[in-house]
Amino acid sequence: MPARQGPFGYTDETVNAIERSLSSERLARYINAAQGNKKRALQLYERNTALSEALYGVIQGFEIALRNALHDTLRRDLGRDDWYDFVELEEAQLQSIQTAKDSILNWGKAVTPGRVVAELTLGFWVQLTSGKYEKTLWVKHLYRAFPIKLNRKDLFKRSDSIKKLRNRIAHHEPVLFRDLKRDYAGIIEAIKWICPATSEWVERTNCFEERFSAPFPASRLEADILPTGPRPG
Description:
Elements: H1 12-22, H2 24-33, H3 38-78, H4 91-106, H5 113-119, H6 122-127, H7 134-138, H8 152-170, H9 180-194, H10 196-205, H11 208-213
């Protein structure tokens, strides 16, 4: 551990200063869970950050696998890399494509299919599996993106749930009070729907379970303020 990353001194002064930096509103749920103990609340916040970091990497595996599976299928079926300019999409998805192109141009780069696909958000790809595209995209093309027979409604429901969790993490919101073990298992399973090898790779190389299972001494975090986390060892 680097010298400057040793134990932190949780004095009343430092705790109050951090609360001002983060805002009382942001810390409110943690303070409530810690029964008013601000030091414990900050330690819960730290745990939330550590688990969010770990989950974000797992979600990344899902997001990229889903994106590439859908893109490759549409590219292959339609015979062109810029398929998104030649399929019938609703206004929200058309706007997402235009925003992606505008961003690329603002960077001074040429608009290429690879850059557009990489710039499109997870929400865009999730919407392609929604009911509004069942007849035009799913039945004609997208079901082929998966090695198993997959129910579109189940895929959309799971993908949308993962997207919402991703957005909470991206906006630094609390995820600690969710059933994170269930969330994690659901993401790993969803990746398996797309590519079993990638699912196994993500599962074996991420740090979520290690962080989730790491014991916390009672002097650091009390068991009764970790509703979904591991109990002290």
